[in-house]
Amino acid sequence: MAEVTLKDVALASGCSIATVSRVLAGTRPVGAETARTVRAAAERLGYRPNHVARALRSRSTGTVGLVLPQITNPFFPSLVRELEHALHAEGRAVLLADCDDDPVTEADRIGALLARQVDALLLIPVDERRSREAVAAAAAQVPLVLLDRGCGPGVADSVAVDNAAGMDLVLTHLAATGRRRPCFIGAAGTASAAAERRAAYEAGAAALDPAAPGRTALGDFSVEWGRAAVDRLWPSRPDAVICANDLIAAGALQRLRQLGAEVPGEVAVTGFDDIPLAGLADPALTTVRQPVGELAAEAARLLARRPAGGVAEGGAGARRAVRLAPELVVRASSAPGETHPLATP
Length: 345
Description:
By secondary structure, this protein is of the alpha/beta class. The protein contains 13 helices and 13 strands. The strands form two sheets. The chain has a seven-stranded mixed β-sheet, with helices on both faces. Strand 1 (63-68), helix 5 (75-88) and strand 2 (93-98) form a beta-alpha-beta unit. Helix 5 (75-88) crosses helix 13 (292-305). It is elongated and about 80 Å long.
């Protein structure tokens, strides 16, 4: 079957090729009745736009590159889903790359996506310091937005949850339930989310117990590390185990059960992110919920306001750092019989 062209749609609708092009591309306003006539003709004929030809004319590929540190982290697929939906609504496709938590691989993936002429980049950086050079270089070439983690001030636009507010929600909840000897299991390195959650714990936990900031174990964002860290911290007999993400918390819950600890009677456990696993854990996990849909929508808005060349809409060159409010979802791992969200003030 021959490919249906703009000329065919123009003949069927009784409009000019220029008018048909404007309607189907959405580049200029057209009368409502004319637009309906053109779209009806295009649908009847089975017209499909030629994206390759459009890219050659506009010098835009309609694609956004997305680089993740580790696709096996269950938080990231839910974010990818929301990003794909937000960008698809704008007529953009997503090219996904996984860098396996390696800054060298991350730089290679960024270079490969730029070589494919993506219009923009979304990136969750592996490490605040070691990712900075590649991110800054890419941000000088195409619109680039950092998600969930940053690379320091002024490098690129960014959107993330307010990690300090999330940790404050956790500590306030634990204090209200009578916990006074918390400990913290987090991730080492300079990934900004890990560092911010650790710093917020150290700053806030001291109000419950001056020794609490010292009850900290740092490894990575994994179930295995959660199990291993409990063995390090349990001899100090904490009454709350605060974890930097839900994977760590799942491992901590598992190991505490093996040790015969009663959760939450003897010790409360909390996580961060609210991945699907959190509600399925036994007991169900109290955790900080990230507003994933808002993260994706805000990232799309930031990309739209910064055209190629790095100058933001309106002529402002300053980078924007957007922080979104988290909420605490209280479940049985810290308060038996309770399941409800508490929004940050």
